[in-house]
Structures are given as C-alpha cells and as structure tokens.
From TrEMBL:
Membrane topology: Multi-pass membrane protein
Entry's localization field: Cell membrane
Transmembrane stretches, start-end: 21-43, 49-66, 87-107, 113-136, 145-164, 170-192, 204-227, 252-274, 286-308, 328-350, 357-379, 385-404, 416-442, 448-467
Phylogenetic placement of the source organism: Bacteria, Bacillati, Bacillota, Bacilli, Lactobacillales
PANTHER family reported in the protein's UniProt record: O-ANTIGEN TRANSPORTER-RELATED, PST FAMILY PREDICTED COLANIC ACID TRANSPORTER
Gene Ontology CC entries for this record: plasma membrane
Primary localization class, coarse: membrane
Keywords: Cell membrane, Membrane, Transmembrane, Transmembrane helix
Descriptive protein name: Poly-gamma-glutamate biosynthesis protein
InterPro entries per UniProt: Poly_Biosynth_Transport, Polysacc_synth
Length: 488
C-alpha cells in the first residue's frame, strides 16, 4: 500500500476538525437561544444516557481493529477475514446494546420523560456499527472522511435553520444531530469494498479477538463514565438548567480539544503500524515529535481560553449562559494533562498491548471523578463537575505515565521536552499580556476577541522563534520551502 503523508493526513483531519468545530460554532449559538437552557439540558441528558449504550455496542472494537488491522492492511485476504470477524462481533454487541437500552427505558421511570429523545439518539448505535469507520482509519483514508463530513454538515446546517425554530423542537435537533454524525455511514459500508470484503462470518476463533476487545471495552466503560458522569450526575442531583449551563462550557472545551488533537488522531494508525513491525527507532522519533508539538499547542490553548472564557461564552451562547464562564475557565486547566494522557493511552499503552493498564488507569480516574462529583456538586454545582474533570485528567496522566515510562522515558525526561514546555510557558505570558491589552483597547467584544486571538498567535509564535524553538523554526522553514517551490 502506498504510504500516505502524515502531513496531508494531519491537514485533512485538521480540516475535518475545523469543520466539526465550525458546525457547532455556527449552530450552537442559534440552538442554545432557540431551545433555551431547559431544552439544551434535556437534549444533553438524553445524549449522555445513550452514550453508555453506544459504548456497549462499540466494545473496544475501533481501537483494537486499528491496532491489529494496521499490521496486515497490505494483505487483502488477511484484512478481509479480520474485518469480517470484527464486524460480526460488532453486530452481536449492537443487538445486546439495544436490548439493554429498551429494558432500561421500561425499568427506570426517571427516563420516561426523555424516552423520545433517547430513542432518536439510539439510531447512532446502529449507524455507527454499519459505518465501519475503523477501516478508513486503518488505511488512513482521511480524504473520504473529510469530504463526507463537509457534505453532511452542510446539509445538516440547512435542515437546522429550516426545522428548529422554537423550544419544542429539541427532538428535531436530535434527529439533525444524528444525521450529521452518522448519516453517511451507509455509504461507508458500501465504499469499504475498495479496501476489503466485509461480510458476516460464523466460524472463527472468537476468543482471540474478544479477550483484548473486552479489556479495551472495560477501559472505554471507565472512560465513558468518567466523561459523562458529570452531566449525568448534574441531571440527577440538580436541574436541567444546571445541565444546560455545564453543557455549554463542556461543549466549548471539547471543541478546542478536538482541534488540538487533530494531529494525534491521524498519527495513531502510523504509530500502531511502526510498533507492530518493531520499528522502534522510527516509533520513538514520531512519538517525540507528536508529543512536543501537542505540548506547544495545548498550553497556549489553555491560557487563551481562560483569558477569553467570558467573551467566548457570550459570543457562542449569550448572556443567559454567562454563569458558565467559571466552569469553562476551570475545565481549561485540563488541556495539557488530557492531551498527554491521551497520547500515553492511544499511542503507547494500546499499541504495546497493555490494555489492562489502560483499564486500570481509566477505572481509577472514573472512580475519582464520580466520588468528587457526588461530594462537590451539592456545594459547587456545575463548577464541581469541571473541577472533578481536571483532577481526574491529572490522575489519568500520572497513572498512564507510571505504566508507560519504560517506553517513553526518553521522550518525557529529555532536555528537548523540557525546553518546549519552558518555551511554551514564556509564550503564554505573551498571550496573557495581549489579551489584557486588547481588553483595555476595544469596547467591541467581537473586535476584542478577534484581535486577542490573532495577536496572541502572532506573539506566541514570535516568542518561540526568539527562543530558538526547533519545532516552530522547522515548521516555518517547511512553509518557506513549500511557498518557494510553488513560485518556481
């Protein structure tokens, strides 16, 4: 198979991430005002409930399939058999998920008022299964994934403004959300034939796949509980209004995190392939580049969002959600720990087949998150959920590092890594200064926010150049070469 450029893949995935960011940036201000706080609360609570059953359907299949499939993707017969076996397992897990979902709707009276919205969100379970997106990740086909995202998000945007017109339209918004996220998955299944032939098979060694899949599944359960327990517990212990407030800060936090992690997502299959083929020198070199680049992105993102949290909330959701500013500022502290923990999980522990340690790390973090939420939500409300998330992210990073240190010690304990952190922190001082200066210089909130972001990027980059940061200098040299070649 022709080796695909990580740079092109990173660009395509960044473009997709930007589109995924622009879509909620365009839609969320409209939706949050039209549906109001209560409607947003119902929408997000229903989505959080379905997410648990989506996890049951998914098991640990995506992560496992990418890790193992990347090793055999050049052999059409092996990858076809492997993909068919994985797809068959996924069909059975999906059936089990739906059975458990319907039983829960009957058993828990609290869910009866949310039944319609929950059932709509449950459609994503079926469409995600037949979507087999892991095939496209194995083959690093981010061109198709990006094109698909563009088409369906544009269609969804049109549908949103046509059909979502009042607080009673939260069900229509749920349908449009599902259409945007998984509407193209039928085409996914059909077009996957260009890579391999997927069919339902019966006679194969289930245990070979199920053991690692279930370990990853356990880790995913812990992670899902960890990710969604804040909204779920806020919904159970507080009101839809509080859930709506926290949903805004959580949404903004996830939007920025998705953009930062665009490079990470496209690098995972390549790292899995290098580790699987025992090309350790190339693996560690790529891992070091990835880690240091993401550190240079995560720290300024954290500082910038803290400085502009009030303006971002007002611009995206309006004055009704102003109280979400504090929880957003708290959540922003988690970026660096979240990204590093993510790297250690998906780029180190999973490729090295240390799923049991991922399970342990996720479990510890999930328990910590739940306990802190239960203790602090009655006192601190939505701010408790944000603080619990930050502390859980720190915990996950520490535990992951403990289990991966023999593989990544040279990456994290190095002068290069330390210098990048110091350079970034110095650059962040410039960001703070720029944001304060812009706040004093402009009365217009839109102008103040726009200039704060633009000037912060320029000043941060300039500081890194002055500090002779190798990553930013190489990046600028690469851009200069590309421009020079285009002009010649």
């Amino acid at each position: 198979m022709k080796k695909k450029s990580l740079g092109i893949n990173a660009f395509l995935n960044s473009l997709r991430s930007i589109l995924n960011i622009l879509f909620p940036i365009i839609t969320f201000p409209y939706v949050s005002r039209v549906l109001q706080v209560k409607g947003i609360g119902i929408y997000n609570f229903s989505n959080s409930i379905v997410s648990y059953f989506s996890l049951i359907a998914a098991l640990g299949i995506g992560t496992y399939a990418v890790r193992e499939g990347a090793k055999i993707r050049d052999n059409i017969h092996e990858i076809s058999q492997f993909a068919s076996e994985i797809f068959t397992i996924n069909i059975f897990s999906t059936l089990i998920s739906y059975i458990l979902l319907f039983l829960s709707l009957f058993a828990f009276s609290k869910l009866h008022n949310y039944a319609a919205c929950i059932l709509i969100f449950s459609l994503q379970i079926f469409f995600t299964t037949i979507g087999t997106e892991w095939i496209y990740q194995i083959y690093e086909d981010y061109g198709y994934i990006t094109l698909r995202s563009i088409i369906f998000q544009i269609l969804s945007l049109v549908l949103l403004f046509i059909f979502v017109r009042g607080p009673q339209d939260y069900l229509k918004y749920a349908v449009i959300t599902i259409f945007s996220a998984v509407g193209a998955n039928i085409f996914n299944f059909i077009l996957a034939r260009q890579f391999c032939r997927i069919r339902v098979v019966w006679h194969f060694n289930w245990r070979v796949h199920l053991t690692p899949i279930l370990i990853i599944f356990g880790a995913n359960i812990a992670n899902m509980i960890y990710v969604n327990s804040d909204i779920t517990l806020l919904g159970l212990m507080k009101s839809n209004y509080i859930v709506g407030l926290y949903s805004v800060s959580s949404k903004i936090y996830q939007i920025v995190k998705t953009l930062i992690a665009a490079l990470l997502m496209v690098t995972i299959p390549r790292l899995a392939m290098l580790f699987g083929k025992n090309k350790m020198a190339e693996y560690k070199s790529l891992l070091s580049k990835l880690t240091n680049i993401l550190v240079l992105l995560a720290l300024p993102a954290s500082v910038g969002l803290i400085m502009l949290s009030k303006e971002v909330v007002l611009l995206i959701s309006g004055k009704e959600y102003l109280r979400a500013t504090n929880s957003l500022s708290i959540l922003s502290l988690a970026y660096i720990f979240s990204i590093l923990a993510w790297i250690l999980t998906d780029c180190v522990l999973i490729p090295s087949k240390r799923e049991k340690y991922v399970l342990r790390s996720m479990g510890i973090s999930a328990i910590l998150n739940i306990v802190l939420n239960i203790l602090l939500i009655p006192v601190m409300s939505e701010n408790a959920a944000a603080l619990s998330t930050v502390l859980a992210e720190i915990c996950m990073f520490i535990v992951n590092y403990h289990y991966a240190k023999d593989l990544i010690k040279a990456v994290f304990i190095s002068k290069f890594f330390l210098k990048n952190i110091i350079d970034s922190l110095v650059g962040c001082i410039g960001i703070v200064g720029i944001c304060l200066l812009c706040r004093w210089s402009w009365n217009s909130m839109i102008l103040m926010t726009a200039f704060s972001i633009i000037l912060s990027v320029i000043v941060y980059g300039a500081i890194l150049v002055l500090l002779s940061n190798k990553i930013i200098i190489k990046m600028l040299n690469d851009i200069r070469k590309i421009i020079k070649n285009r002009l010649l």
